[in-house]
Amino acid sequence: MKFFFEPKGVALIGATPKPHTGGHSLLTNLTLGYDGPICPVNPRYHEILGLRCYPEVTAVPNPVDLAIIFVPAPAVPAVLEQCAARGIPGVIIESGGFAEVGPEGRALQERCLEIARRGGIRIWGPNCMGLIDSRKRYVFSFLSPDAWQDNLNPGGVSLIVQSGLLAGGFMTTLMSHKILRLAKACSIGNKCDVDETDLLEFFLDDEETKVIAMYVESFPRGRRFFELASQRRKPIVVLKGGKSAAGARAAASHTASLAGNQALVRGALDQAGVYQADDFFELVDLARTLEKGFERTAPPAGKPRVVVFTFSGAAGIVTADHLEASGLALAELSPATRERLEKWSPSWMPVNNPVDFWPAMEKHGPEITYREGLAALLEDPEVDAIIVHLFAGFGVWFLDAEKLFHGLNKTPKPVLFWVMGHEQGYQPLRLALEEMGFPAFNEIQRVVQVLAGIFEFRAGGESPAVPKGCADPEIFQALKIRTEAFREPVLDEGESKKLLRELGLKVVPEIPAEDLSGVLAAAQEFGYPVVLKGRSPGLVHKTEAGLIRLDLHTPEQLQAAFREMAGGPNMPVSYLVQPQLKGDVELIAGIVRDPQFGPAVMLGIGGVRAEVYRDVVFRLAPVTRRDVEEMVSKLKGRALLEGFRGTTPVDLDLLADWLIRLGELSWRVDAVQEIDVNPLLVVQGEPIAVDASIVLR
Amino acid sequence: MKFFFEPKGVALIGATPKPHTGGHSLLTNLTLGYDGPICPVNPRYHEILGLRCYPEVTAVPNPVDLAIIFVPAPAVPAVLEQCAARGIPGVIIESGGFAEVGPEGRALQERCLEIARRGGIRIWGPNCMGLIDSRKRYVFSFLSPDAWQDNLNPGGVSLIVQSGLLAGGFMTTLMSHKILRLAKACSIGNKCDVDETDLLEFFLDDEETKVIAMYVESFPRGRRFFELASQRRKPIVVLKGGKSAAGARAAASHTASLAGNQALVRGALDQAGVYQADDFFELVDLARTLEKGFERTAPPAGKPRVVVFTFSGAAGIVTADHLEASGLALAELSPATRERLEKWSPSWMPVNNPVDFWPAMEKHGPEITYREGLAALLEDPEVDAIIVHLFAGFGVWFLDAEKLFHGLNKTPKPVLFWVMGHEQGYQPLRLALEEMGFPAFNEIQRVVQVLAGIFEFRAGGESPAVPKGCADPEIFQALKIRTEAFREPVLDEGESKKLLRELGLKVVPEIPAEDLSGVLAAAQEFGYPVVLKGRSPGLVHKTEAGLIRLDLHTPEQLQAAFREMAGGPNMPVSYLVQPQLKGDVELIAGIVRDPQFGPAVMLGIGGVRAEVYRDVVFRLAPVTRRDVEEMVSKLKGRALLEGFRGTTPVDLDLLADWLIRLGELSWRVDAVQEIDVNPLLVVQGEPIAVDASIVLR
Fold it and tell me: Is the pTM of this model over 0.90?
C-alpha cells in the first residue's frame, strides 16, 4: 500500500492544460505539493504546466510506482494494460462510469480488475477522489486547488470515505471551516480492490494516524475488518450508510454493495470496540474528540460521572437532561471539592452540579473563576469528565482561552466545551480551544452524545480469541457428520432440540406420539399440565398454523386440543407432548451467518413478542463470557434478567454457556446456517429451550 | 400586556453613565430605538447621555407606563412602592438576587409580588434580560448594544426564554449568526408574575408573530397554557428543561420551579399540537422552518412521503437511513414523474429516490438540472416534501440560489435544504436560501428531524371540548358521594373494581371469601382455573407480597395456594376468588393529577413488565375518541393491539370507552387522586380490568 501514499514517481494519465477540468486540477495539485517526479500522460500535448508530457505511460522514463487515471471509463482498460506492461504496482482510477452506473459499468469494472490481478496491480477506486496527505501536502485528487491550498490543517485523524462525489465536498467543508485536523483522507469510491480493510490495516501502522474515521456502506471483508479492529490499537469511528431497508436499497442501487443486517453489523462493531456515528459531522465530532487522547476512567460498574460547569442554569438543566438520556450520570461532588467551591462561590450560592460559575465570576472575574473552579473539579476523584459552557463574548469581553485554560490541558480527563456567542468571538475561541486540545461544540446534544460515545469503550479491550470451548471437540465432529446427513434444509422442533441436547444444552423433555392414545400416555408420564405440538415437516411458524396448544391441565383438555389440531387446516403428521414449564422470562437466542461478517450469535427478549420491541443484540461467533455480559447489558429489557419483581435472576454462567456453545457450533460446523431458540425460557434462573428450529445450508 | 411591548414612556431605574455596566447598556439601547419619552432615574445624576435624569420615579413628569428596574435586589421593594405610587402598570425587574439564590431571595421576591399586586402592577422577571422587538428596534434589556445593533433580523418568530443569563447569550448568537428571523424576544427569568402563558396569549393575537418558540422549565398555569395552545392558531414550539430526574433537581434548585411529570407534559403538549424540541438550536431550527408557512399534505393514514434530491449517493443513503428512523417514508415517484426525470437524466442513470442529480448536472448544467428536476418532483402528487442536498461551491462555482430556485418558493410543499461547502460559499448560499423562504441546515439528522417535526401535527386540530360523556351525569354525582364517604385514602382491589363497575366499565367477576371453604365454594361457582388473591388493607403491590396466585386448575392447587398464602408473611384478612381469564395482551390504564396540568389519563402496555419498557402515553382529561386513537398510535408496542400474530385486534370503541370514562371521572370527581388499572386484559378484543387500585385525595 505504501506506493499509494509515498510513491517514488507519479504518472497522471488524462492530464490536460484546460482550466476548470479534473485533469488540470489533478496536475496542479501534484505540482503544489508532491516532491517526486510528476509525469503527465496525454498524446495531445508535449508539455503541460511546464512538465514534459508523454503520449502513453509506457513511454515514461522516470521511476513511477503510482499511476492516476482520469480518462473516460471505456478507455481505462487499455490504459491499465499499459500500466501493467510498465510494471506500475498502484493505480488510482478517479474516473466514474463503472459499477455505480449499472450492469455495463459493472462489467467494465470487472474487466479492469481482471487486468489488474493479472498484472500485479492494486486498484484504488474507480469513481473516487483519490487521497490527500495533509502533512506531506500530497493531493492525488481532482479536487479544486482553491479548496485545499490555504486550508490544510494537519493532525491525527485519517478519514476513509466510500463514495464518489461526497468525499470532495465533505473534505472541502472540513478543511475550509477548520473542523478536523486531518492526517490522511482517502476517497475509495467503488472500492473494487483497495477497501476500508486495507486502509484500516495501513493506518493501524501509520505513525501520523492517531484516529481512523470512515464512511462505508458495506464491509466486503467484514471478518478481517473485525479482527483488525478488535486489536483496539487505535480508536476507529464508523458511519455505516444503508442502515434502513430503504437505505439498503439505495446502497445496492448506488454503490452496488451489499449492506449487511444492521443489528448484526452494529453488534460486531460494538464487540470490536468501534465507535459508531449516524451522520457525517457526528463522525467527525467523535473522531476529533478521540484525537485529543483523553483517558477514560469511569468506574467499571457504574455510569461515567460528569460535571457541568456553566454560566447558565438553564443550559445546565438541558445538559443534565441529555446526560440522563445518554446513560451518563451527574457526578456527586466530593466533600473536599464542595468545600473548595464554597470558598470560591459567593456564600448565597449553593454548590451543586451543574456548577453555576456566574456568581463566582461576578466576585472574582473570569481568570480566577475558570482556573480555580475547573482545577477543583479536575482533581475530584468522583469526577470522570467535565462539560464546560462558555459564552464567547466579543470585543472587550472576548475570552482569551490561552490565558484562562493554560495548564488545564495537562489533565487526562475529558473536558469538552459547549460554546455559543457572537460570530466575532465564537470562531476564534473555538479554534483556540481546539488548538489547546479541547474539543468545542455548538449543540448541547452533540457534546453529550460525543462524551457518551468516547466512554463507550475502554482502552485495551479483551481480544476475541476463540474460547477454549465448553464442549468436547469430538461433539462437534459428531454434529458435523450428523448435520451433513440431513436431506431437508429445515429441521423440525424435535430434531432441532435433539441436536441442541447433543451439544450439551438443556431443552424441555418431550415424548413423540403418533395418535391420541400415545399423546395421553405421554401426558400421563409427565403429569399435567402439558403442551401439545403438531409436527409438520418444513413448517416453522407453528403458532400461526394452530399447531401449539399450551397449558392443558386435564386429559379432557388434552383430548379436545388433539381433536381440534387433528381436524384443523394443518393436520400434523405426528405429535410432541411436553410438560408445561413455568418460567419468569422468555428469551430468544440463535445464530445466523452474515455474508460479510460470518457466523454470529443473537440474544434477545423473546416469546411471541420478540418482533414487537426488537430487543436483540448480536455478537460475532465465537463469543466469550465477557461478550455475553455485554450482550445482556445492551438489552433494553435487561431488568427482566436481573431478578425483576421478586423472580430469580438468570444464572449468567448457564446463559453464557448457552451462547458460547451456540457460537462454537456456528464457528465449527459450517453446515448449520441458522438456529432459532424461541422461547429460551428461564425457569428458576435456568435457561431451557422450549422450542427451536435449525436451518442447514 | 401592551404596556410592556408598546409603552407610552419608559422610566429606567438604575440608569448610569458608567460604561460597560448593565444600567448604561439599558439606557443606550433605549436611545437607539425606542421612540417615546425615556426617563433615567438615579439620584446621583442630573443628566445621563443627554437625557434629564430624575432622583426617583415619582418625580418623572412625562407619561410613563413602563418602568425598568436595574438596582440591587434589596433596593427593589422600595422602588416598586414608588412605581405603585406613580401608577405605573408594568415593571420589568432585570436585577438578579431573588428566588434563584435561595430562601432569602425567594422571600424578597414574594415581597415584591405582594407590593405589585397591591399596586396593580404586572411584574416581568426578576432575574431576566427583558425584551427585544426586532421590527420596532425596542431593546428593553441590559444586552450590550454591540450585540444587537447591526444584527437585528426582523421576522415572524417570537421567542420566550425562562432564564437569567442564557437569554442574552442565546439571542446574541442567534442574531449575529443570522440564524433566526425574530419578531419579539422575551427573557422572563424567574417569571414571578408574567409567565409563558401570558405571553402565549399575547402572541396569539400579535400580528407580527407567526410562530411562538419558548424555553421553559415549568408550566405553573399548565391547564390554561394547554387550553390556549389547543386552539392551534399559530405553531408553538417548546423546549422543556428539567426532563430527567437529575434535570428536575437542577430546575428546582435553580429557578425554584416545579418540573412536572415529563411523560405527562409531553403527552399534554402533543395533545395540544405543540411541537417539541430537546435542545436550544433544535428549538430554533423547528421554529424557523415553521415560520416559512409550508403546507403539510401528508395522507392522513400514511407516513409523509419524502424525496431526496442529491448530488451524492452516499448522502442520499444516509438521509434515507434517517428518514426511516424518524418515521418518514421515501416517496415512490409517480410514473409521470419518472418519465420526466428519465428524459432529464442521462439514459444510463436509473431514476430512483434518492434522486441523484449529478449525472443530469453533467449533461445540462446547474440551472436546467435544479429547475426541471425540482419542478417535476414538486408537481408529483405522490410527494409530500423534498430534501435538497447542495454543495455550495465557491469562487467561479458558487451557486446562485436566486437564479436557480426562483419561482420554486411558490410551492406550498416543504422544501428543506442540506448545505455543505467551503466557508466562502456556504454562508451566502444559506442566507440566500433563507431569504427565498427555504430553510437550510448543515446536518442531515437535523434536517430530517425538523421535517418529521413539522409533519407531527396537521393544521386545524380538533379542539378538546369536554366530550358529551358516555356515562350518565347522575353516576358521577353518586360516585362523588361514594368516594367522599371513604375514610382510607387507598381503596383495595375489591372496592376499586366495584367503583369501576359502577362507572360502567367491565371488570373481572369475583367472589369475596373469608376462609378456605368460602374460597373453594367460590371456585366451584366460577369453574377452574381460578385466581386467588389475598386482601390486605393499604397494600398496593400484591405480586411482591405473595398475595396473588394465578392459574389454579384444581381444588388441590387452590387449597395449597390458600395454605401458603394464609401461612405466609403477609397474612391476608380475607380473600378474593376470580376466574382465570385468558387474554391476548395486558394493557395498563389509569388517571393521575398533575399539579400544573390537572387530571390526565394514561394508556400503556401493561402487566408486571410495564416498568421495564415504560411504553405509556398520557393525555389530559377529559379525552376524546381521537385522543385515544392518538394514544394507541404513539405506543411502541401498538402492534400488540392490532391483531398481532393471529390474535383478535383490540376493539377500539371499547378501549376508547374505558379511557373516556376514566377521564371523565377524573374531571368530575375531584376526590379521586389516582387510578391504576393493571392489567387491563384484552380478552377476545374486549378490555377487562383484572386488577385495579384507586387512591383518593
Answer: yes
